[in-house]
Design goal:
Elements: H1 2-26, H2 51-54, E1 55-59, E2 64-67, E3 70-75, E4 81-85, E5 89-99, E6 108-115, E7 126-132, E8 141-147, E9 158-161, E10 171-177, E11 181-186, E12 189-195, E13 210-217, E14 237-250, H3 277-280, H4 284-296, E15 298-301
Antiparallel strand pairs: 1-4, 2-3, 3-14, 4-13, 5-10, 5-14, 6-7, 6-13, 7-8, 8-9, 9-15, 10-11, 11-12
Length: about 325
């Protein structure tokens, strides 16, 4: 009788373990089946550049390998790594295909962003796509953010789950910034639009910026508010970058895109490659795709964070 009880208990425990493992796997957002919307592939309209022609090494030189249109950036105990464009831009189309570090990568941040913090340390602008590494229970997530004129106390974060595994293949990450709006896109699907009108205008980036691609240690905040720091025994953490596309209004000469496109006095001319009608508004298909992404995948928006803001930002 005792042996039968032990056998039944063993079966019960094995069933619980299997159930837990299955439940654990369901946490993965990209393990669910998604039918992605059809959208225009804007990235096909622009030419890729050789990374060495468009970028300089910003930090972690020893952790950067560049080969034509492909680069690998490594985070290890010694340093992270980062690239920055040789030119600064006032508006443009900025895109790259990224593959993120595989495995346990809590606290690791891969960033693809525009910033002028080095030129305007007290009132800088910034447009961010930050990819936040997984903890044992979560996937990588996508964080978007906008700062204007040094508004660091008013972060405008929105966070999204992935609908694919970003560590297994390259995927497109794109920023469109012009006089009409800022658009954040992943695989050509808009996930967020920040218009340059109404209450948004006071928070709209207005000064020329450089594009950065970096991998770094975000242990203090990146994964569950810093609960899960980088564990270097799982490193090194390698982010791969390919097919970079830069087309914008170059402020300091041009080795990419159509060249300078500013009139005297600094106003942007009609030569802006993303100022035409195709880039002034989102199409019906793009609006539908963005609605899909926000309904299915967005899990945080600053406009819903009443515990963080006693007075919500004006555009909310």
């Amino acid at each position: 009788m005792a042996s039968l009880k032990n056998y039944n208990m063993k079966i019960l425990l094995e069933t619980v373990v299997v159930f837990c493992l299955c439940s654990f796997s369901l946490v993965s957002s990209h393990s669910r089946k998604f039918t992605t919307p059809n959208v225009t592939r804007l990235t096909d309209q622009f030419s890729r550049i050789a990374i060495e022609s468009g970028f300089s090494k910003r930090f972690g030189d020893h952790n950067i390998i560049v080969n034509g249109s492909l680069a690998k950036l490594t985070l290890d105990k010694s340093s992270g790594a980062g690239l920055v464009t040789k030119n600064t831009y006032h508006y443009g189309f900025f895109s790259a295909r990224l593959k993120l570090p595989a495995g346990f990568a809590s606290g690791v941040v891969v960033a693809f962003y525009l910033s002028n913090a080095e030129s305007y340390p007290k009132n800088h602008d910034e447009i961010d796509i930050e990819l936040l590494g997984r903890s044992r229970r979560d996937d990588w997530s996508i964080q978007t953010n906008v700062y204007a004129n040094g508004s660091l106390k008013t972060g405008r974060e929105e966070k999204f789950y992935y609908w694919f595994d970003p560590t297994q293949a390259f995927h497109d990450y794109t920023l469109i910034w012009n006089s009409h709006h800022i658009v954040f896109l992943v695989d050509n699907i808009p996930v967020r639009q920040f218009p340059n009108r109404g209450a948004f205008m006071s928070a709209y980036p207005s000064k020329p910026m450089s594009l950065y691609v970096t991998v770094w240690d975000g242990s203090e905040w990146a994964t569950h508010g810093g609960k899960y720091p980088v564990n270097y025994k799982y490193g090194p953490f390698v982010a791969s970058i390919a097919d970079v596309k830069l087309s914008g209004c170059s402020v300091n000469g041009s080795s990419t895109g159509p060249g300078p496109c500013t009139k005297s006095g600094g106003s942007v001319s009609s030569l802006d490659p993303v100022d035409g009608q195709d880039f002034a508004t989102l199409s019906k298909n793009q609006i539908a795709a963005m609605d899909w992404a926000r309904r299915k995948l967005m899990f945080y928006s600053y406009c819903n964070d009443k515990s963080r803001y006693k007075v919500m930002p004006a555009e909310c």
